[in-house]
Amino acid sequence: MTDAPRDHAHDRAEKVGVLLVNLGTPDAPTTPALRRYLAQFLSDPRVVEIPRALWWLILHGVILRLRPAQSARKYKKVWLREGSPLAVWTARQANMLRSYVGERGPLVEVRWAMRYGQPAIATALDALCAEGATRILVFPAYPQYSAATTASVIDDVADWAKRTRRVPELRFVNHYHDDPGYIEALAAQVRKHWAREGRGRKLVMSFHGMPKRTLLLGDPYHCECLKTGRLLAEKLQLEDGDWRVTFQSRFGRAEWLQPYTEPTLKAMARGGVEGVDVICPGFAADCLETLEEIAIEARAAFLSAGGKAFHYIACLNNSPEGMKAMTGVALRHLQGWDTTPMSREALQQRQARAVAHGAPEQR
After folding, report:
1. What angle do CA 116, 89, 260 make, to 5 degrees?
2. What DSSP assignment string belongs to 25-65?
3. For 227, which of 11, 20, 53, 357 is 20 to 30 Å away at the CA?
4. Measuring CA to CA, which residue among 315, 318, 336 is closest to residue 327?
5. What's the distance, CA 291 to chain centroid?
6. Domain containing 249 — which CATH number?
7. How far apart are CA 59 and CA 54, in angstroms?
8. Are residues 153 and 265 in the same domain?
């Protein structure tokens, strides 16, 4: 009888894994680190959908020569002692998700990964499998689905699966843009800000931009952003003129989803709006796009155009309300998977069956 592989422990309780995934981050706020990160990020055909040969020339001939130094300077403005803000918050979210899910009794291993940069998705999936996970929920942290984000995570998981002998059962969280817990968590974040800082005349909800052609090709991202904005406004009982949905982070000369965030803020200031509150509901955690692009650059643009008060409302990060919402989404997708620890008797029975079928007894 052929012995089973050493790592094939028949008596080990099967676990359920949750992999929390965010976009990515460089290893350091330096030009070389940004060049490595941007090369990986901008080489993804889900992110840049133009002919590969043409894009390769643009990317390596122009962008990777100029943009890394520019981006490094921006990252230095927001870099934390512990590292990149996105990595710091995502790690804390994963730790709290493990705790929150554990309070309900299921046996779940939780890890986190980045689509671009470290820790890589493949590395985290290998670790979950090594810890006994035979069923894994992949949880992209993006509330709104986009082919450039959610689908890219699925691509990377699929690439890992192609190289893996024993592929676990896999599930994916595609979106949670209209999840009641998520909407309530956003509303709670706004209310806390208003209670602490006072309320501005307008609430601007800034989402990450995408090229307009993605909408025309059938990507639901634009519609899901608008629905998130509408549901949040309803939850806060705002009048139609009290809030706006905008889109930030344009790149290149093509038309992107509109209205654009910074021009909208400037127009508000020139039109007599003295105070605005800005929240970014498309980001589960604070990062360069929220802390530098909005809290620094957009603020400066609004004030220079005549505005008086600009307040950035932080992402949910690891707030109790945000973690409660994230836990609810995870538990809903885990339904039907047995996540309760096996008893000693059940483990012994499984071991006995394994030995009876020729596998060596595990000690």
Report:
1. 70
2. --SSSSHHHHHHHHHHHHT-TTT--S-HHHHHHHIIIIIHH
3. 20
4. 318
5. 15
6. 3.40.50.1400
7. 9
8. no
Indicate the residue type of 37.
Answer: Y
Q: Reduced to 3 DSSP states, what percent helix, strand and coil does the chain have, rounded to the nearest 5?
A: 50, 15, 35
Does 363 fall in a domain? Answer: no
Distance from C-alpha of 314 to C-alpha of 312, rounded to nearest angstrom:
6
**CA–CA dist 12, 7 (Å, integer):** 10
Contact 140, 150 (CB under 8 A): yes
Are 104 and 161 contained in the same domain? Answer: yes
Q: Can you give the residue range of the structural domain that contains 153?
A: 15-176+320-334
Query: Does any domain span residue 160?
Result: yes
* Same domain flag for 153 and 264: no
- How far, in Å, CA of 225 to CA of 167, rounded? 34
| Cα distance between residue 281 and residue 52, in whole Å | 32
Q: Closest Cα to residue 21, out of 159, 137, 147? A: 137
One domain, residues 101 and 226? no
Per-residue pLDDT tens digits of the chain, which is 363 residues long:
444 444 454 455 688 999 999 999 999 999 999 999 999 999 999 999 999 999 999 999 999 999 999 999 999 999 999 999 999 999 999 999 999 987 765 679 999 999 999 999 999 999 999 999 999 999 999 999 999 999 999 999 999 999 999 999 999 999 999 999 999 999 999 999 999 999 989 999 999 999 999 999 999 999 999 999 999 999 999 999 999 999 999 887 889 999 999 999 999 999 999 999 999 999 999 999 999 999 999 999 999 999 999 999 999 999 999 999 999 999 999 999 865 654 445 445 544 544 454 444 443
- Same domain for 172 and 116, yes or no, is yes
**208 labelled binding-site residue:** yes
Tell me how far apart the alpha carbons of residues 201 and 307 are, in angstroms, rounded to a whole number: 11
Residues 161 and 241 in one domain: no
Residue 289 annotated as binding site: yes
Tokens 């309300």 found at: 321
What is the DSSP secondary structure assignment for residue 361, as one 8-state letter?
Answer: P
**Do 244 and 171 fall into the same domain?**
no
